[in-house]
Write a structure and sequence with these properties.
Chain lengths: 275, 324
C-alpha cells in the first residue's frame, strides 16, 4: 500500500540528511510501526508522505503509483494522516471537526451529501466519539482529542491510515484503547502505519516493526526480530534488557538504571558490560 | 435557530439604517424619510436624505461589511483571534500612500484612494516577500510578525513626512487617518462596491479552506489543502478589502478585530457563515458607530476611528479573560 524505496530527504540548511536510503512497506491489512529515538527521522517520513518535504533521492509509492503523480486532494482521499502536533484555537463541535475529514471529497460548490454525513457518523462510531459529537473540541481531554482526530482521519475514507505518535499524553487505559482500535482497523483491511515511542505496546500489536536510527533503518521485521537488546542499546544509548513478557508472551524492553552512554560502547550496569 | 439569528441580524441592521437616515442635525420623522426617498415633500429633506445621508449610510455599510469579512478571514486562516487587516500592515501601507500623496501636494480627493491602494498593495507585497525570505512559505506567525513590522515602519514614515509638512497637509492627513464616511459620493461608492464585491465573493469561495487552515498547517496539508497557496489567496483577498476601505474611508480600527468575535459568540462555527455574518455585523456596527459620531456631541462630529476604538477597547477588556 505505502512503500518507501531508498528514500533520502534533507531539510533546507540542515547539515545532514534526515532520512538516508530508507525503505519500508506498510501493506494493507497490517499494522506497521516505525520506532526510533528522538530525531531519528520518524516524523520526517510523515512530512515526505504529505509532500511538505520532497525527497532528494528514492521514491514513495501508494499502491505502486509514484507519490508525485497524485494531486493533494486525491492523496488525502487515499491516505489519511494524523500529524503529531495539532492544537485547536477555535471552538468547534466534534461532529463539525470530524466532518472536515470529508474536505478532500468536497468541491467549491458541492455541499455535504447524505453519504458524507453517514460516513462522518460511522467514523465517530469507529473511533468511539459518538457520545462527544456535540462537545466543543477545546473542552476535550487528551484521550478524547486523540480519538476525535482519528475519527476525522477515518472520515477521509482512504484505505491507509498514518499516525504520528497517537498515544502521546495518554494514560494506560487510553493507550491500550488506541492500539486496540488501530489493530482492529488493520484487521478490517486498512494499511495502518504508526509512529510511536511505546516499544512494548508496538511489540504486542504490530505485525512489522521498523527501527530508525539517524535517518537509517537499522532493523525491520516482526517484533521478535527487531526487539534485540544490543541493537536497541546502541540506538537508544541506554542500558537495557529485553525479556519475554510472562503474561502476554511478547518481547518486552526493560530499561536499566544507569547513565547515558555514547554510541557503540558497552553499557554499564548490565550483565553484558564485561563482554 | 440559525434562520432566526440571520433574520434578527437583518432586522437590527435595517432599524439602524432607518435611524441613520432619520437622525442628524436636522431630525426627520420616519414618514419624512419615506417621503424624501420617493421624492415627495420638503425639498430640503429630499436633499438631506438623498445627497447626504443615503450615500453616507451606504458607504458605512460597505466599509463595515468589508472590514468585518477581512477580519473574519484573517483570524481564521492565521489561527489568531487578534489578527485583523490593521495588524498586518495593509492599512499602514495604505495610510503611507495617502499621506505621501498629501505631502506631495495632491489635493484631488478622488486621487487619494489610488495612492492609498498603491501603498496598501506595496505593503502586502513587502509582507509576502518578508515571509518568503524568512521561511519560504506563508507561515501564520511569520506573516503576523512581518505585518507588525510593516505597520511600525508605516507609522515611522508617516511621522517623518508630517514632521516637515505644512499645517493644512497635517490636518488633512490626520483627519484621514482617523477615518470618516462623511463626504461620501456615489462615484466613490461605486468603485468601492466593485472592489468589495470581488473580495467578498473570493472569501466566500475560500471559506471552506479557512475552516481547514484553522486546524493548523500540518493537519490542513493532511486534508489535501495546498496550505501556502490557500493562505496566500486568503491574505490577498482580505488585503484587497482592507486597502479599498482604507482608500475610501481612511483608517477605522477595531471593526475587523471585534466583529468576528461577535459572530462567533453567537455559535457560528463554519467560516462561510462567519464571513457572511461578519459582513452583516460589520455593516451594522459601522452604521451605529457613524450614528454616534454624528450625533453624540453636536455640532462637532467625532472621528469615526476614535468612536470604533472607544467601542472596541471596553469590548476587549470584557473578553480579555476568554482570549488569554
Amino acid at each position: 500500500m505505502i512503500r518507501f524505496h531508498e528514500v533520502s530527504a534533507q531539510y533546507p540548511r540542515a547539515p545532514r540528511e534526515a532520512l538516508s536510503g530508507v525503505s519500508l512497506h506498510a501493506p494493507a491489512g497490517a499494522l506497521t510501526a516505525v520506532v526510533g529515538p528522538n530525531g531519528s527521522g520518524k516524523s520526517t517520513l510523515v512530512r515526505v508522505l504529505l509532500r511538505r518535504l520532497l525527497p532528494r533521492r528514492g521514491r514513495v509509492e501508494i499502491d505502486a503509483r509514484p507519490l508525485d503523480t497524485f494531486d493533494n486532494r486525491e492523496l488525502a482521499r487515499r491516505v489519511a494522516v494524523v500529524p503529531q502536533r495539532e492544537s485547536a484555537v477555535f471552538s468547534l463541535p466534534v461532529r463539525e471537526y470530524v466532518a472536515l475529514g470529508r474536505y478532500p471529497h468536497e468541491g467549491p460548490w458541492r455541499a455535504e451529501t447524505r453519504t458524507d454525513l453517514a460516513l462522518v457518523e460511522q467514523a465517530m462510531a469507529d473511533a468511539g466519539v459518538t457520545e462527544l459529537a456535540t462537545r466543543d473540541i477545546l473542552a476535550l481531554s487528551g484521550g478524547e482529542w486523540q480519538r476525535a482526530r482519528i475519527a476525522r482521519a477515518l472520515a477521509q475514507g482512504g484505505d491507509a491510515l498514518v499516525l504520528d505518535e497517537p498515544t502521546t499524553f495518554l494514560d494506560v487505559g487510553h493507550e491500550m484503547g488506541m492500539f486496540e482500535l488501530l489493530a482492529s482497523l488493520a484487521r478490517a483491511g486498512r494499511a495502518v502505519l504508526v509512529i510511536s515511542h511505546q516499544l512494548n505496546l508496538i511489540a504486542r500489536f504490530a505485525d512489522t516493526m521498523v527501527l530508525l536510527h539517524e535517518g537509517q533503518v537499522v532493523a525491520a521485521g516482526p517484533p521478535q526480530a527487531v526487539m534485540q537488546a544490543t541493537t536497541l542499546e546502541h540506538v537508544y544509548h541506554w542500558p537495557l534488557v529485553v525479556t519475554r513478557d510472562p503474561a502476554v508472551g511478547a518481547p518486552s524492553l526493560v530499561p536499566l538504571r544507569g547513565h547515558r552512554h555514547s554510541s557503540g560502547r558497552s553499557p554499564v550496569n548490565t550483565s553484558e558490560s564485561s563482554s | 435557530m440559525r434562520t432566526a439569528l440571520w433574520v434578527g441580524g437583518l432586522v437590527v441592521l435595517l432599524a439602524l439604517c432607518a435611524l441613520a437616515v432619520a437622525l442628524g442635525p436636522v431630525a426627520l420623522s420616519l414618514r419624512e424619510v419615506r417621503d424624501a426617498l420617493v421624492g415627495v415633500g420638503d425639498p430640503n429633506a429630499i436633499a438631506i436624505v438623498r445627497a447626504i445621508r443615503l450615500p453616507r449610510l451606504t458607504l458605512a455599510l460597505i466599509v463595515g461589511a468589508a472590514l468585518g469579512m477581512a477580519g473574519a478571514a484573517l483570524q481564521g486562516s492565521l489561527r489568531n483571534a487578534l489578527a485583523e487587516p490593521y495588524l498586518l500592515g495593509v492599512s499602514g501601507g495604505a495610510a503611507v500612500g495617502a499621506v505621501l500623496a498629501f505631502g506631495a501636494g495632491v489635493r484631488d480627493a478622488s486621487a487619494i484612494p489610488i495612492f492609498a491602494c498603491l501603498g496598501g498593495g506595496a505593503a502586502v507585497g513587502a509582507v509576502l516577500l518578508i515571509a518568503r525570505a524568512a521561511g519560504g512559505r506563508a507561515d501564520a506567525r511569520v506573516l503576523i510578525m512581518a505585518g507588525v513590522i510593516m505597520g511600525a515602519f508605516a507609522n515611522a514614515v508617516i511621522m517623518v513626512v508630517l514632521a516637515n509638512a505644512p499645517p493644512n497637509t497635517v490636518r488633512g492627513a490626520v483627519w484621514w487617518m482617523m477615518g470618516s464616511v462623511a463626504d461620501a459620493g456615489w462615484a466613490q461608492i461605486r468603485w468601492l462596491a466593485a472592489y468589495v464585491l470581488v473580495g467578498a465573493i473570493a472569501l466566500l469561495l475560500l471559506a471552506r479552506q479557512i475552516d481547514v487552515l484553522a486546524l493548523g498547517e500540518e493537519p490542513a496539508a493532511a486534508l489535501g489543502l495546498d496550505v501556502d497557496r490557500s493562505a496566500r489567496r486568503i491574505y490577498l483577498a482580505s488585503s484587497l478589502l482592507a486597502a479599498a476601505t482604507v482608500a475610501a474611508a481612511g483608517l477605522i480600527g477595531f471593526v475587523g478585530l471585534m466583529v468576528p468575535h461577535i459572530v462567533r459568540a453567537f455559535g457560528v462555527r463554519r467560516h462561510r457563515a462567519i464571513v457572511a455574518g461578519a459582513a452583516l455585523v460589520g455593516a451594522a456596527l459601522l452604521v451605529a458607530a457613524d450614528l454616534v459620531a454624528r450625533t453624540a456631541m453636536p455640532p462637532a462630529e467625532l472621528p469615526l476611528g476614535a468612536v470604533t476604538a472607544l467601542l472596541g477597547v471596553p469590548f476587549f477588556l470584557l473578553r480579555i479573560r476568554k482570549l488569554a
